[in-house]
Design a protein that fits this description.
551 residues, four-stranded antiparallel sheet, two-stranded antiparallel sheet, 19 helices, 58% helix, globular
């Protein structure tokens, strides 16, 4: 057997009393021989053999218990532990094989099975879970474009590292590796707009005992998080400190090599220039901050090889995820395409800048029409307008180019905004009441907190609502109201704005009807290539103005 557990005195006595049959021991030896090969040749066969061993061992153990009374409960657990270890390792081996075959959904199934086995025995294999299992899951979720699930696993790995350090469990993790794990969490949180969480994890990374090059990278990520949160002055201080403490020396501990250091240095130089300009111009509200933080994140991403991915790859991934009914993951992929487009522009690709508006338009339409997250769509709308300004492409129309009616653009919630609560599943007595936003939507769940007046005089009640349920309403002049938890949105999905790759705006209902009637080019400029995304999205939209046909 993979005799890791049998080396302890606890299990030696068990083996003296209870021995598996010759057939079962022969299967164990076969499993060990297969497992010890580098690499493992057939993970599926290894897993099947482990299942057979467990079934046979449990069958023999059950029969032996009926004849013997001296077997203690701890002994039984020890025997089961030794058998389940083989099953655990087999799941991991097969998951690795599936990962190489791009069967990412199957990878998740086997890592979850392995995690359940470890939990069954009181987290018996903490090191393997922390250093191997979580890595497999992160890679699988990253390739599936599921950023929220990726973040959950990345956080779990960081927590496992912390617990191991507290409990004195040797994981063999260097300070550099801990920083990389923390920075990865922070990067994902920035993408999901949880800037507070990103700053917290970045600060933790800065405090890890590690080579100076690794600490510099952590400090750069802290600067990026501060910039993303609108704290340009503080971000500049972190970037300048990184510049002062910069070292190109490779001091071991698994740190960066020479090529990686060059990419990080290039990213730092760009971050410094951009941040200094932003602080000097004090422009960071309309287009400066949004684009600056996108550029800084894109430049910093170069340190880990994001340049090997392409915006086209991410756009294709977004289309696939949308067809699969995953609008959130599709929007994440579209936003990643934006980051890579900016990265290519930074590296000197002259076409990247011209592609940026269309890339931003795709992400906006996904967030606005399919994800229907007004807060997220409003952020993307700001970036669309910024991209148009940078490329000198004019401005978006304020009315639909087909029906000529005014478009209702999404708006971001801010602190002290007035909102209206509709259709809550709980606390229904507060429906249709106005309240003020005390915390705008943040975090992976994108929740906002709203305070409204309670039933008692002077009572204030805080209600948490999902940002994905926030939708702007047509309100009285000068008043901003929102539907904070409604299944019937004041802005119907048919009236939501669509922006084409050629930068023309329509109501979803209007452009859907045109495409259904055979429109394959933009109704305004007759562009064909830039209209392909819109045609594909329209095919996934319902036909709101006509009844479904019955065959």
């Amino acid at each position: 057997m993979a005799r890791l557990v049998e080396t302890s005195d606890e299990f030696v006595g068990v083996r003296k009393q209870f021995e598996l049959s010759a057939d079962c021991q022969a299967m164990e030896d076969s499993w060990v021989n297969m497992y010890n090969k580098e690499p493992i040749e057939d993970g599926k066969a290894l897993l099947a053999l482990a299942f057979r061993i467990r079934q046979q061992a449990m069958r023999e153990l059950s029969a032996w218990k009926q004849q013997a009374t001296s077997l203690l409960a701890s002994d039984l657990r020890g025997i089961e532990l030794s058998v389940d270890f083989m099953l655990f390792e087999s799941h991991l081996a097969y998951a690795s094989e599936l990962l190489n075959a791009d069967a990412h959904s199957e990878v998740i199934k086997h890592t979850q099975n392995a995690l359940a086995l470890s939990a069954r025995h009181g987290n018996a294999w903490k090191k393997r879970v922390a250093t191997c299992l979580f890595d497999y899951e992160k890679l699988a979720y990253a390739n599936l474009g599921e950023r929220n699930h990726f973040l959950v696993v990345a956080k779990a790995q960081v927590t496992a590292f912390r617990l191991a350090e507290t409990e004195g469990v040797p994981l063999g993790i260097s300070g550099h590796e801990r920083i990389v794990a923390l920075v990865l969490v922070a990067s994902t949180q920035i993408e999901l707009r949880d800037f507070d969480g990103a700053m917290a994890h970045s600060r933790e990374a800065v405090g890890v005992q590690a080579p100076q090059t690794s600490i510099n990278y952590a400090r750069m990520k802290l600067g990026t998080a501060l910039m993303a949160n609108g704290e340009a002055q503080e971000a500049l201080r972190e970037f300048e400190r990184t510049d002062r403490e910069w070292t190109s020396g490779f001091d071991g501990d698994g740190g960066f090599d020479g090529n990686e250091l060059q990419r990080i240095r290039k990213a730092l130089d760009h971050n410094l220039r951009t941040c200094r300009q932003l602080v000097a111009n004090k422009e960071g509200d309309t287009h400066g901050a949004a684009m600056a933080r996108a550029e800084i994140e894109a430049a910093a991403a170069a340190a880990y090889g994001d340049e090997y991915a392409t915006p086209i790859d991410c756009a294709a991934r977004a289309a696939t995820l949308l067809v699969d009914g995953k609008p959130r993951e599709a929007t994440d992929a579209a936003e990643r395409a934006i980051k890579l487009t900016i990265l290519h522009q930074i590296k000197g690709d002259p076409m990247a800048m011209m592609q940026l508006p269309a890339t931003e338009a795709r992400a906006f339409t996904l967030a606005n029409c399919f994800l229907r997250d007004d807060d997220r769509a409003a952020e993307r709308l700001t970036c669309v307008r910024a991209a148009l300004k940078r490329c000198a492409r004019g401005q978006l129309e304020e009315s639909c180019a087909i029906c000529l009616q005014k478009l209702v653009w999404p708006a971001r919630l801010a602190k002290r905004d007035w909102v209206r609560i509709h259709s809550l599943t709980r606390a229904t007595q507060h429906n249709d009441k106005l309240g003020t936003v005390v915390r705008p939507p943040t975090g992976e769940e994108r929740r906002a907190e709203v305070e409204i007046t309670g039933s008692k005089p002077g009572e204030r009640i805080t209600i948490k609502v999902r940002s994905s349920n926030l939708a702007s309403c047509v309100a009285e002049p000068g008043q901003r109201t929102y539907c904070a938890a409604s299944f019937e949105r004041p802005v119907h999905e048919s009236q939501r704005a669509v922006i084409t790759g050629c930068m023309h705006a329509f109501h979803a209902k209007c452009i859907k009807r045109a495409v259904d009637e055979g429109q394959m080019t933009c109704p305004v400029c007759r562009a064909e290539g830039d209209f392909v995304d819109t045609v594909a999205m329209c095919e996934l939209m319902p036909s709101w103005d006509r009844p479904s046909e019955t065959y």
